[in-house]
Each structure stands twice: as structure tokens, then as C-alpha cells.
Amino acid sequence: MKTVPDILEEAADLIETVGWTQGRHLERDQDLNVIGYCAIGAIAQAVGLRCAATSVDEMVSRAQASARAEVHLNKWMEKKPGGRRGVVLWNDLPGRTAAEVIDALKQCAKDFRNKAVPDG
């Protein structure tokens, strides 16, 4: 199972390589190709919530991993300016940039690995 930092780093990588969006978990082009993820949508993709599961247990495990990563990101953000709004509102704030979202995901992963984010 992926760790919280692994999930956050993969989410950052998805936004870097695919693109970023606001106001929805993911954005598609006219051919239905994904062209952007918000922070939460990227986390969901990183754990495979958008992929077919082979069992109910696997889907539950993925949902739990996504929730853990979201909780830790929210806790980390509470200490940042404007972060008390939560990840969704923070991501969707007018003027927010993809670079800020990518940096936040990577920094939270780094801080979690260094035990600067409480576990639980």
C-alpha cells in the first residue's frame, strides 16, 4: 500500500504532467482525455479511485488511502495562510496557481516524511 507521502508526491506529479484545474476533481478535453486535476482529484487518481477495482476490499482500501492523504494535507494546510478553508476551497481560490498546489503537495509529503505533520 502506498504511504501518505507517496500519494501526495504522485498527486503533485500528476498535476505537473497532466495539468491542473479548479472547480472540479478533473477536467477533460472534447475527446474525453483528462487535461487537469485539482488537488483532491489528483489524490484520488494517485490511489486508483478512478480505476476499476478487483474487489470491494480493494476499493475500500483505496478510499481509505485517499482519505488519509486528504486528512494529512488538510492538517498541514491549517498552519498555512488561508489554509483553514480546507484543501478544496484553497485549491479553488481565485488567483491560486498550479505551481502553488504542486508545491503544497510536495512540501506536505516532505514534512510528513520528516514527522512535521501528525500521523492520525
Q: Radius of gyration over alpha carbons?
A: 14 Å
Q: Supply the number of structural domains.
A: 1
Average of per-residue pLDDT values: 88
In N-to-C order, the SSE pattern is: HEEHHHH
Largest β-sheet summary: 2 strands, antiparallel
C-alpha geometry: globular
Runs in which pLDDT lies below 50 for 5 or more consecutive residues are none
Describe the structure.
This protein is mainly α and 120 residues long. The chain is 56% helix and 6% strand. The chain has helices spanning 4-17, 39-47, 56-77, 87-92, 98-113; strands spanning 26-28, 34-37. Helix 2 runs antiparallel to helix 3. The radius of gyration is 14 Å and the shape is globular.
Topology:
Elements: H1 4-17, E1 26-28, E2 34-37, H2 39-47, H3 56-77, H4 87-92, H5 98-113
Antiparallel strand pairs: 1-2
Helix pairs in contact: 1-2, 1-3, 1-5, 2-3, 3-5
Observed structural traits:
single chain; 120 residues; 2 strands
Short description:
The chain has 120 residues and is mainly alpha-helical. The chain is built from five helices and two strands. Helix 1 (4-17) runs antiparallel to helix 5 (98-113).
